[in-house]
Protein 1
Amino acid sequence: MITFEHVGLRYGIGPEVLSDIHFTLEPGSFHFLTGASGAGKTSLLNLMFLGRKPTRGLVHMFGQSINGLNRAQLCVIRQKIGVVFQEFRLLPNLSTLDNVALPLRIAGRPEKEIRNNVNELLEWVGLGEHKNALPLTLSGGQQQRVAIARAVIARPKLLLADEPTGNLDDNIGFRLMHLFEQLNRMGTTIVIATHNQAIIDKFGHPRMILDSGRLHVEEPENWARKNIEGGC
């Protein structure tokens, strides 16, 4: 699904914020992306979403190198990716229903199918009564659920989420995690950046750990062993 080979990223002439990033994500995998604030999680997600090209190194997605692709070719690949941004990026003049329906309309799905699918998903995330509301009339947590629903409605091949449960109580957060897991079982590759240790422990997926711009991947059994040996 995704391969990074010795990827580095810097902004302008400053130092690298990501250095020698090297990993492969298999189709249908599920990873948590963790690390302290400023470790580079959002920058790495931005590279995976193709919002920015790396300063150096090679990136392959969906079987092709992205390094030499033009903007139109990158847009074709982005249509396979669902993203939950920290700042939500909802369209303020569209209702909840129309924000969530946007990926399906871009894909040319029949309107009856769109309405049925969106209404069902909004009920599931607890926003059925707010389907006609504009984003600015919703709370931060409600806007976050709209953004998540929009990201998953088209069943993307890859889902990237930046702190998707950050503004939600634990009950809603766990419910949305079950939605992500259901999507994963249907074949979507998922990467979730989070600081929520309760969610990481409960769902037990491998962790991609960023530390000062460098990455290593840790399997759940290794994390459990480390806790036991460390007396945690």
Note: Strands lie at 2-10, 16-25, 30-34, 56-61, 64-65, 81-84, 158-162, 189-193, 207-211, 214-218.
Protein 2
Amino acid sequence: MFTKKGYNWLRTDPASEASEQLEREGYAVLRGVLTPEEVAELHTAASDVYDAFEADVRNAGLPKDEREDFRYEMFNRNAAIQEVVGHPAILGTIDPLLGEDCHIIANTCWRNPPRETNRQGGGSWHIDAGPHVPHDLAIPWDDRIPYPVFAIGTHIFLEDCPLESGPTGVIPGSHKSGTPPPLDRAQDMDLTCYDRGVLALTAKAGDVAFFVSDMWHRRLPSGPGDTGRFFIQVHYARRDIAQRVRPTAEVNHVSDEALARATSDREKHLIGIHPRGFYDG
């Protein structure tokens, strides 16, 4: 897809192998995008953000120690992180699917220390948004039509993430299912979609993983030898989709007078004041 004069057009020129896999399978991993020196710089930069900013209380249901795992709006808080979210290898992968005018809708850092249990960390099967094209699971997507991608999650790894550390698991092809994963199987490691099961996105520091927002995914259980996880998460989306870097209660287009007139939840939603969702914490 490419954008011209505000419209989206079908792209006919070749895209990268990672872009094609991301559209077809719903995920891709680029190996060795960052040098060890770049990883070290970003590791320090992200750690500095944790030192300089207290944890945002965006999920009041989490214990305080787990709220410490997260820092939000990272490109606002560090120049090196703002630079890496525009890395040519990343943009070269997402632009053919989202358009050259795509933007960041959320930018959260995850620093999960080793724990026996986690109440957060995406540990149940879920999707980040959508499904953007809902349809009956029994009706497979017609692959003659490129699957429309609206948002892409990206993990920039600052430390190795082996199987023992509970990497993200994805079910390839599930982004085309038109439905979220079944709620009654949220913890089922044997869950399948179109006869395909879980694939672990293990990574080395400097790798970058991508997955479509509609993809069925979860954090896999960690095990003995867990060293924790540390990565910068960036969600990119089409220009049409609103940014969620900060909650709408903090950043919006609503006057004080209009907000005072909105007394019901529906009236607030209508003028753009929404409850926090996945992207905004």
Note: The radius of gyration is 19 Å.
Protein 3
Amino acid sequence: MAHIILVTSFKGGVGKSTVSANLALKLARLGQKVLLCDLDFDLGTLDLITGCEDRMLFDVCDAVYGRRDVEDCAVTFPSVPGLYLLGAPFRCTDEIVPEDFAEKLSAICEPYDYAVLDTPGADSVTVAVGARCADSAIVVATHNPTSLRGAEKTAQRLRDVDLPCRLVINNFDAVSVSEDKRTGMISMIDATKTPLLGVVPYDRTLMFAQEKGVLADGDSFPSSKAFENIAQRLIAEKTGGRPVPVLSGVIGRKRKKVLTK
């Protein structure tokens, strides 16, 4: 059965879609069959981030409500076997009943090893859908204090519905932390009251590549190893394997300082 992962935060602009897309990529690269699903019905961007906007003819609502077969709706990636995308509708005209939508979406996800559900930056009806069918959640945050407050609120809401959640720190600026300009990891974990799953370093290369629909696939991206670490940790938890250390190959110099500040 698929392990369904909700990627969320009630604060927008923290990089949920970036984390969702690149985590799905790395899971697929590690041999998993992965469904990446865009539940941001207000401003879905996964088709742009993955560079397949011209190939997305149908969307997740078409699949959920049976207007088209899932095979017709899911975009494939010839260069990444095992990765599939269900995009968000350009304009959603369906009445979304969370219980019904979640049940049907869960059935769609079942043939996959993992399903990654990307959500909008708000406490929306599609977040409720994702929380109903997810097995676990990733809460994304950055150094920004409003982002940390949003992550804390999000994690608390998920715990209220008994959904296990962990923190992914995105765009972590180790240089600024070592210079006492930004918050360190321990302080961020304390602020969000959420256990840490992974740390993604600030990646200027990915920021520009993403505008062209290119993901962090390869050594030219500083964030690539971080996304791979997160994927490996998730697989190890599911299979009983040995987990990869959070910062392995991600932050080398002054690791203790950026961790403990």
Note: Residues 3-260 form a domain with the Rossmann fold fold (CATH 3.40.50.300).
Protein 4
Amino acid sequence: MYDGGIYRSNELLEMIEDVGGVVLQKTRSAQMFTVTMSIPGEDRGEMERMCTSIGGTVRSVPLAGTEIAVVGPTLGRHHMPHPVCDVAEVLRQNGSITVVMGLARGRGKATSQISVTEEDIINEYDAAIYVLGNFKTCVEAKKHLFEKIRVPVILVSGPMPEGLDEYCEAIISGVGRKSERMRTPDERKKLEEISDRVDEVLRARKKMLEEDPLFVHPAELKQLLEEYEPIKESLRPAPIVLHLDGLRIKIPMHEHGKAISDMTVYGRRLGDIARISESRINDSSIIIKIMTRSEVNDADSAGKGA
């Protein structure tokens, strides 16, 4: 990730293209410019020297190319304390796109609920981090909030709960509700622990994808989609968001779904090599899940057989 000023940033973008890299995300705020990129390892030294010469810095961001949901029981002050925002922020600092989500009826040990729509929304992300509270029995009683979630779940809470290992890829204790930011060295260390565990979980997911690779890498598909005029004209922040196995495109499905499906990728129709669906968040975006090579071959075999 490059952090610096807008001055001479065009030289940075040109160099990324020259070394065969890909811009994963870029954000401009006033005169500040942030670029998350993927480049060949052998070119990192030269990239760092170039970034230093234009007054910026470069650092590794292991969560780049992911979108993660940080979930609290509700959006109320009782359930959406500062640690939720601190967890989301440390993930952003490590390259991920994050959203903070509160459930409509998540409060109360005996009355907490999660709807099917909320489960579907959470399942659109690469992972979900549930930030629960300070009471062990309450945390254990709320397992139904994430037991049906299909993406990796990382549970963060005050006490260490028992009996939840089968529902979570990781559990981090020591972060409960508190009314102030996590500023002390021990608290910052705990936030880094959360980020490291998320990285471990997602690395395992990447390794699984390497065993049966995607038909096309999400970053390659992003480059194609960036030429689509409605996406170019989109004023929403980060109109294309990378996932481990696909992308989120922030344009309405009912207006652009067919055009997106009919795009050509390596001689194939995109709709034939990916599952394209409407986001459950009020038609706000299109979710593309790229099929693996074996899935595409199986679909081709089934088509020939028919």
Note: DSSP finds eleven helices and 15 strands in the chain.
